[in-house]
Amino acid sequence: MKNLSLSQRISVYLFFVVCVSTFVMNSTFFIVLQNQSEDQFNLQTTEILSNINRYYQIPVWNLDYHGIITVTDTWLQTRSGVLAIRVTDEASNLIVQKTKENKLFDLLLKQPHTILKKEKITHDNRQHIGFVEVIFSNADIVEQNNFTYIKSILGSLIFAFILSLVSNHFLSLFLHRPLQNLISGTQAARNSNYTIRVPEDAVGEIGMLASEFNKTMNAIQDRDQRLLEHNNQLEEIIRLRTIELDKQRANMINSARLAALGEFSAGMSHEINNPLAVIIGKATILRTFVGKGLIAPEYEIHFIKITEMCDRISKIIKNLRAYARDGSNDPFDSFELNRFLSDIGELTRLKLDKKAINFRMQNHSSLLKIYGKEIPLSQVIINLINNSADAVENAMDKWVELTISDKDGHIVFSVKDSGQGIPEDVQKKMMTPFFTTKIIGKGTGLGLSISKGIIEEHKGELIYSIESGNTEFIVRLPIVTKA
Ligand SMILES: Nc1ncnc2c1ncn2[C@@H]1O[C@H](COP(=O)(O)OP(=O)(O)O)[C@@H](O)[C@H]1O
Ligand SMILES: [Mg+2]
After folding, report:
1. Which of 305, 311, 325, 433 could form a disulfide with 246 if both were Cys (CB 3.0 to 4.6 A apart)?
2. pTM over 0.90
3. Architecture of the domain delimited by 6-164
């Protein structure tokens, strides 16, 4: 019973209820029937007895044994309910006694469903001439009634069984299946599957429940969708804020770095310039000694070389001071392209020479001046050249090429190196702040992101391209003709 479904249980209960109620009804009916047939039996036997009595009046008065026996046999044979007849005289002396199938009279009396009825036999309705006693049996009727009772009980059982089968069919159609659908729907929802829907064709309250369930699932899905959208919006806001914060942090770090470098190179140039001035002074004095014939003339060339080298050192220091500082707040201004390029050449030569990298510079631009922030722009180009130098330093063939040209109203700086391009995953991230593939101490991951910011400030673009199999970065700046 425990494992039965609700509809099966109801069907089983129904079966028992129908069984019990039909049993009670049948039994009541049976008792009533039994009583009725008992009464009827009584009436019938009384009637039959008086009938029999009438047939005995004449033979008993005449003491006609033959006639008495004939009457007795006739009644015994023709009436199935008559089991035995005894005829006595008025003093109860036996005249004739006959039974069906020659059974003993007293034994027949003890059989169930038999009664003995006795009546006086009279002559001319007055004179008492004897007695007639008859044993009647209603076993046939009782048996028939019992049979009817068992038949109706069996019929009731079959009826109850069929009724419970039919009820089970309809209950499972209208109750079990829709409920089962709802149960599996609820289980799916518990496992976060809100796409589940249940059929709404069930009748009555279960149909309403199914429709409410579906509406609830719709509402949950709507809510989830809104939450997802909200989450995505939040994620996007966070992503944009993070990029912004990273940029700000990169700019701050870069400014701090440049400020420190500026301070350092200012101090250094001050320290170097003084002894440099002394060296230049002394070399000039020595050259005058050559003129005076105090020193052999073949030494003059060395003094000239010393002076030249000192000039170069002082120029480098001057450039270093000029470029190694945070120029982000400088105003836009026009500056000479040639000087800008030669200063870049000076500032990168040391690193390139040290790594034995071949550096070529080709200026095809017709411009004499550019408009922008000179220091930040020079930092962009220097940074690109330094990146190239880092990339090719261990290669067999090492070269870096800076080409300047004009195209479509833009001045284009191309920094190309002998590297074979940048892997795609690095390409995707290299412009974001703090992304570096270099070891700690060597790379900061600031170069390209800061450069991109500077170029965008100039309304230009910094793009990576791969041309003829070599790595190339291109800076395109719109040509601004300043009145
Ligand atoms: N010319 C180049 N060849 C190969 N890889 C490069 C080149 N320029 C930049 N990259 C890649 O881009 C990354 C980011 O460069 P950058 O922003 O200048 O930071 P950093 O030089 O400090 O690593 C480098 O670490 C390197 O992986
Ligand atoms: Mg770099």
Report:
1. 433
2. no
3. 2-Layer Sandwich (3.30)
